[in-house]
Amino acid sequence: MARPFINNRANKQRDQILAVDLGGRTTKAIHLQRRGNAFALSRFAVIDAPIFDKTISLEMLAEHLRAVGQALGAKTRSLALTTNVNDALVRHVEVPRLPVDELRLVLKHNSRNYLQQDLSNYIFDCHFLPPDAPASPADGGKSPGVGAKSKVLVAGGKKQLVDDYVAAAKNAGLVAEVIAPGLIGPVNAFEMAFPDIFANEVVALVDIGFKSSSICIIQQGELVLSRVVNIGGDRLTTAVAESISVSYAEAEGIKVGMASEVSAVLESVLSPLGRELRASVDFYEHQQDRPVAQIFMTGGSTRSELIVQTLQQELMVETKTWNPTVFLQMDLPPQQAAEIEHVSAQMAVAIGTAVAAL
């Protein structure tokens, strides 16, 4: 999938990483270790974000990352961070056949031509889509033909945001080895969890976040469409809280544990979300003339069976949840081993980011 904005791999293969998904309301973090061809989950943490309604300062982010590192109790300083789905650009484009380092500069200086926006303050990275491959250093990066183009998946993020992440990690005593788009995390995790479905079918992955939800359509191993919808779990919880006059925390518990009692309220919010997600499926099916076979969902809100069933009615495709931890070896402390199943639906972004970093 799309390569991260920063990947300081150098010449050394990492064998462990801390991956941190900085969510709008909660931060999800894991300590993942590589063991041969397998991966082991050593510790996880779900921590309240410092603030929910405004931009976090560099100092506050550093303190938050320090707290995350302490909660994970890991000895490694290597860190992989994700950007919010609204803070990263992920797009398919056709570009000249060039080595990746050169292509990143081309996108930076010609973003209006290739991305229809002035993004000169962005950092880019690219993933070449089959059957094309980047020109190799051995042939000097020369194009195989005049005017030859390659299809690539481009990821971009604001340079200031990336710089702040790097500085905050350093101030927290960590090293930001990887910074990647959060949108790609569930795709990477799904590939590891269900390799046969990933490689052979057309499926959609939906992740319901705090403020926004994302949909990624996978066609036989390639991400072919992605979109962010600005409706998330926060809107669902707020609607419940307002309708029955309870606190936000109480509404969150009701949304997941007793959703049937507020089904009409939830359906009023889920209906527009479902229509937006269905529009993306319709667009893909019209363009490619092939159906999306299944939709797989993650995110804390998907712990409610009612929410998943309601969205399935809107999407008109078989819709189910999936567990992004199924391919991992569990090396957790006893208490966390008992808790992981409860929080696994929230971990797809962190797990996918960690796997890509290793």
SSE topology:
Elements: E1 6-7, E2 16-22, E3 26-35, E4 38-48, H1 58-72, E5 78-83, E6 88-96, H2 100-109, H3 111-115, E7 122-128, E8 149-158, H4 159-171, E9 175-181, H5 185-193, H6 195-200, E10 202-208, E11 213-219, E12 222-229, H7 233-244, H8 248-257, H9 263-288, E13 294-298, H10 305-315, E14 319-321, E15 329-330, H11 334-343, H12 348-357
Parallel strand pairs: 2-5, 4-15, 5-9, 10-13, 13-14
Antiparallel strand pairs: 1-9, 2-3, 3-4, 6-8, 7-8, 10-11, 11-12
Jot down its keywords.
5-stranded mixed sheet, Nucleotidyltransferase, domain 5, 358 residues, 12 helices, 7-stranded mixed sheet, alpha/beta
Q: Which bin fits the share of residues in helices?
A: 25-40%
**Rg, Cα atoms, Å:** 20 Å
- Biggest sheet details: 7 strands, mixed
First-last Cα distance: 14 Å
CATH topology of the largest domain: the name is Nucleotidyltransferase, domain 5
Number of helices: 12
List segments where confidence is low: pLDDT < 50 over at least 5 consecutive residues.
Answer: 136-144
Kindly report the spatial arrangement of strands forming the biggest sheet.
1-9-5-2-3-4-15
The SSE string, one letter per element, is EEEEHEEHHEEHEHHEEEHHHEHEEHH
Work out the number of β strands: 15
Strand pairing plus helix content: what structural class?
alpha/beta
Strand content: 25-35%
Question: How would you describe this structure to a colleague?
Answer:
The protein is built from twelve helices and 15 strands. It is of the alpha/beta class and 358 residues long. The chain has two domains: 229 residues, ATPase, nucleotide binding domain (Nucleotidyltransferase, domain 5); 127 residues, 2-Layer Sandwich (Nucleotidyltransferase, domain 5), CATH 3.30.420.40. It has a seven-stranded mixed beta sheet with strand order 1-9-5-2-3-4-15, sandwiched between helices. Strands 12-11-10-13-14 form a five-stranded mixed beta sheet, with helices on both faces. A three-stranded antiparallel beta sheet has the order 6-8-7. A hairpin with a 2-residue loop joins strand 11 and strand 12. Helix 5 packs across helix 12. The longest helix is centred in the last third of the chain and has 26 residues. The radius of gyration is 20 Å and the shape is globular. 44% of the residues are buried.
